[in-house]
Amino acid sequence: MVPTSEPDDVQSLGYEQARDELVEVVRRLETGGTSLEEALALWERGEALAACCQTWLDGARDRLDAARRTASDAGATTGTPRG
């Protein structure tokens, strides 16, 4: 069965949803038994899902970096030792 949704809808998925669907796409590709057209559609969907997951992870990394900078700046301002 080819996914019914287009890659454009991937942007509305949360990280866990995209990751879980990506795992399923990879499983289906690895087990084979699909037509060339289905395999290509799955591959394209997987690429979109992987990009979505990477966007979520990059955003999380940016937030952590910003929080660390804020904590570091606060420590420098108050004279609290940094750790």
Describe the SSE topology.
Layout lengths: L14 H17 L4 H43 L5
Name some characteristics of this structure.
83 residues; mainly alpha; 2 helices; disordered N terminus
Return residue spans where pLDDT drops below 50 for at least 5 consecutive residues: 1-6
> Helix share of residues?
over 70%
Dominant shape: rod-shaped
Order of helices and strands: HH
Q: What's the main sheet like?
A: none
Count every helix, treating DSSP H or I runs of 4 or more residues as helices: 2
Distance between the ends? 53 Å
- Number of E-type strands: 0
Structural features, described:
The protein has 83 residues and is mainly alpha-helical. It has one domain (15-77). The chain is 72% helix and 0% strand. The protein has two helices and no strands. Helix 1 (15-31) runs antiparallel to helix 2. The radius of gyration is 20 Å and the shape is rod-shaped. Residues 1-6 have low confidence and may be disordered.
Task: Summarize this structure briefly.
The chain has two helices and no strands. By secondary structure, the protein is an all-alpha fold.
